[in-house]
Every structure is written in C-alpha cells, then in structure tokens.
Amino acid sequence: MADDNKVVVAIDDDESTLQLVKLTLQRGGYEYKGTRDPLEAVALIEAEQPAVVLLDLMMPQLNGWEVYQAIKSNDAIKHIPVIIMTAMSSGMDRVLGLRIARVADYINKPFSPSELLTSVGKVIANEEPG
Description:
Elements: E1 7-11, H1 15-27, E2 31-35, H2 38-48, E3 52-55, H3 64-72, E4 82-86, H4 91-100, E5 105-108, H5 113-124
Parallel strand pairs: 1-2, 1-3, 3-4, 4-5
Helix pairs in contact: 1-5, 2-3
C-alpha cells in the first residue's frame, strides 16, 4: 500500500450513514468510495485498492462478518485493514471484532466525525486504535 493512498471504501446499507461518512472523509482529505450493496463490496475493494475499508455489520443479503471473511480470503485485498462501524456495541461484540477477528478498529454508531477521522487516520498510519 502506498503511503499516499487516501482512498477509503465504505460499505453500509444505510444511505444517511454513507452520506455522513462521505462528507466527513472528504472534509478530512480522503477520497470516498461507497456502496449500500454488500454483494458489490469485494469487487469495489478489489477495483479501488483502498487504504482502509469501513464496514457495517448489520446488512441484508450478506452481513458484515460475511463480507469481512470474503475480504480476508481474497489474496488481492486481504492486506487492506477493515474498520467495523456498527450499532452492535456490546463489550463482547467489540472483543470479537478486535481480538478474535482482528479488525483494525471498531467504531460504535452513532459516531462523531472526529471519531471517524481519528480512527481512519490511525489505521492508515498503522497505529494501534484507541
């Protein structure tokens, strides 16, 4: 991954969340690409080769963990860090995400624009999330 890669792909079935993410990332100097369709997610990630992926867990058709498994089993994109953004905010969900699945970070919805930018910045800089 090039150090100057500022592309962030977001996958969330909620249009208002994607709009907030888009506005926040663009104001933060990132290039936004997004989809509401989890079935399109892997192809979009392959095409864009983003610096980081933002992934919702609760979606129709495929849930976020299924998309995450598809990313991590694909040699072309498995190196790309994934930040989970979800309303599933129990301590166990967070532990499963960060410790078991080894996601790069875990953001609870609703989140603030500054929280999103901080997480994306730390993950891209390869720092431990907060």
